[in-house]
Amino acid sequence: MKDYCTYMDRLTLSPIAHLELMEALEHPPARPLRRRLLPLGALAALFALVCAGAWGLWLGNTAGTALLPGESTLPALAAVSPTPAPSWDPQADTLTVPPLPEGYAFTQEALALPDLTGTPCMVTCTGIPTPDTTQYVMTAEQILSVFGTEDPTDLAISYGWEGFTLTGGYILRADGTLWRAWIQGERGEDSFSLVLAPGQDPPMNEHYEGYATWTENGVEVSGYSLTPQEADGSAGYLARVFFRTSQLGVFFEGRNAPGHLDPAQTMVKGIVRRGTDPLHGFTLEPLQRQLPKSLGTAVLEESPSPVPRVHPAR
């Protein structure tokens, strides 16, 4: 420090330099105003952003809203309703199909299914489980997986099953492979049964002649109707269709209360339209991925025994 002071004491200025220094100290140059205003503007903008963020956070964390004209207090915000939980249990062994959404309706055109009541019928016992097979109950989630959906409302829209209570099951061969699966539904006096057989012909026990045949989505479909006499003497109504896709043999029967064609006709149209759809048809793949382990090595051999039978006339 002593050396620094000695150094400074030795410094001398020329008369001209001394005069310029004194003038500079007496009249300092004015700073441009813009250099001062720009930082102040930036600070003001930053302050506005901070205030806006704080205001938003306050609104998001308080149960209030802006005052309406004429109000002197802040009205409380309405409580936000949580998303409702599914109205069905995925692990239950039944599934009730909800009503059709508002605005949906079905057309009334009926399929021309010939009535084969009273005509000869050949009965084959191919659907009876044998001791080397095991039967399982489907869960509600597995039932929906057959139709490629997770929403029960889709079953009301696509198949007309609103209000039906569904149950299902499947049978495994001794080697653990899937032999057959079925889904049944009931709603009062109305009912239906859907049977699926992977890689097999349509699984049915009654064989009639004279049924109708047509093509839907490139798949040959056959069908007929029956009007059996009920215990009270009235005539019921059954609509049956069967077909085979590249993956499944399909048999469906819809049964109505006496004196009605629906919902059997509506259900049959839905089964034919969706079941033959190559993109939205029935599938057992999700179920097959969940199959229990092998039950043994024996494989069920089907040996149907044809028995002629004539269906009772009306």
UniProtKB/TrEMBL annotation:
Source species, domain of life: Bacteria
Keywords: Membrane, Transmembrane, Transmembrane helix
The UniProt record lists the keyword Membrane: yes
Transmembrane segments: 37-58
The protein's name: DUF4179 domain-containing protein
Organism name: Pseudoflavonifractor hominis
